[in-house]
Amino acid sequence: MRSRFQPDRQLTARMLVTIFLLGLLYVAFIAVLIVLLKSWLLVVVIAAGLLGAQYWFSDRIALYAMHGRLVTPEQQPHLHGVIDRLCATADMPKPRVAVSAMDLPNAFATGRNADHAVVCVTTGLLRRLEAEELEGVLAHELSHVAHRDVAVITIASFLGVIAGLIVRFAFYSQLFGGRGRRDQNTAAMLLAVMAVSALVYAISFLLIRALSRYRELAADRAAAMLTGRPSALASALTKVSGDIARIPTQDLRTAQAFNAFFFTPALGPGTVVSNLFSTHPSLQRRLDQLAQISAELSGPG
User: Fold this and answer.
1) Scanning 130, 178, 189, 237, which has its CA 20 to 30 A from the CA of 197?
2) Whether 114 contacts 167, CB under 8 Å
3) Is residue 101 classed as helix, strand or coil in its secondary structure?
4) Between helices 181-227 and 131-146, what is the axis angle to 10°?
5) 118-122/96-100 β-pairing
C-alpha cells in the first residue's frame, strides 16, 4: 500500500532483518522441539495453529483484551472526522475505528494489513487531548498501518509468545515429581525444552524491542511531517506520559502486555537499564526528534 506518509527505508530494512533473523530462530526452535519431543507432527500443528490464530485474529484479540468496541460515525463523529481527514491527506484506506472504555490515555493500531486494520483510542485519551493533539496521535497510529509495521510486529511477537508459553508449561508441569528412570528422563527432557525456550524468548525479546523502539520514532516522524504540526504531537506525548504516571499501578499492569502497540507505554518513568528493554524510546528522545523536525519545517526553504 502506498500513501503520502513519508517512507522510511531504515524502518523497512530493520523490519526485513528482524523478520529474517526471527524466521531463522523460529525454524531452529521448531527443529529442536521436534528432536526433544520426538513428535514433529504435534509441534508443527500446534505452532502453525498458534501463528495462524495470531495473524488472522490479532485485531479481534487486541480489541477484546483492551475492552474495545467498533464505533460508527454516528456514535463518534469527531473521531471519525479526524481519521477521515488524515486518511484523505495520506491517500490511504480508512481503517475501522474503535473506542476502549478505559481511563488509561492511549491509542493503538492493529490488524494484519491496511484492509483489516483497526485504530483504537481510549476514552481517557479522548477526554484529555485537544483537537490538534488528537490529530497528531491518530496520524502516528495511521503511519504504523501505512508502513505495515503493525503486521510485522504482530508476526514478530509470535515467537516470543509461543516460547514463553512453553517455558510456563514446562515449569508448572507435574511431570517433574516422578521417581522412576522414565520420570527422570521426562524431567530432563522438559528441562531441556524449558532452557531452549527461555533462550529463544530472550533473543526474540531483544530483537522485537529494538525494532519497536525504532518504529515508534519512525511513526512520530511520519505523523509530524504529514500534519505539519510536530509541536502538537509533542504536546500530546508530554500530556499522555504525565497522566500515565498518575494511573494506578494495577490498571497499568493489565495493559502492559500491549505496550508494543501503544502510543506510549503503560509504565511510569523507568531507569536507564529498563529503558534499554522498553518497547518505546524515552520521552526525551521522542521530544528531541520532534523539536528537530519543528526546526526543519520552520527553517528557510
Assistant:
1) 178
2) no
3) coil
4) 120
5) parallel
Neighbouring C-alpha atoms within 13 Å toward the C-beta of 212: 27
Q: What is the mean pLDDT of each run of 10 residues along the chain (301 residues)?
A: 72 87 78 69 69 71 83 96 95 93 89 84 93 96 90 72 61 50 64 75 82 92 94 94 69 61 68 66 93 87 51
296 is catalytic: no
Q: Are 136 and 236 in contact (CB under 8 A)?
A: yes
- Per the listing, cell 527432557 goes with 189
The Cα-based distances of 160 to 30, 208, 252, 267 in angstroms read 13, 9, 21, 21
Q: What is the pLDDT of residue 174?
A: 45
Closest of 47, 199, 214 to residue 144, by C-alpha: 214
Ramachandran category for residue 228: left, alpha or beta (phi over 0 → left; psi -120 to 50 → alpha): left
Ramachandran angles phi, psi of 5, nearest 5° = -65, 140
- pLDDT in the model for residue 154: 73
Are the CB atoms for 12 and 233 separated by under 8 Å? Answer: no
Q: How many helices (H) and strands (E) does the chain have?
A: 11, 4
144 is known to lie in a ligand binding site: yes
Residue 216 annotated as part of some ligand binding site:
yes
Which pLDDT belongs to residue 271?
47
Angle, nearest 10°, between helix axes 9-37 and 149-172?
30
Which pLDDT value is given to residue 194?
Answer: 73
Q: Which of 74, 135, 141, 296 is catalytic?
A: 141
In terms of Cα–Cα distance, which of 5, 25, 1 is closest to 204? 25
Query: Please, which residues bridge with residue 96 across strands?
Result: 118
Residue 238 buriedness (CB in 10 A; 0-12 / 13-18 / 19+): middle
- Rounded to two decimals, the pTM is 0.79
Domain ranges of the chain: 9-298
The pLDDT value recorded for residue 208 is 84
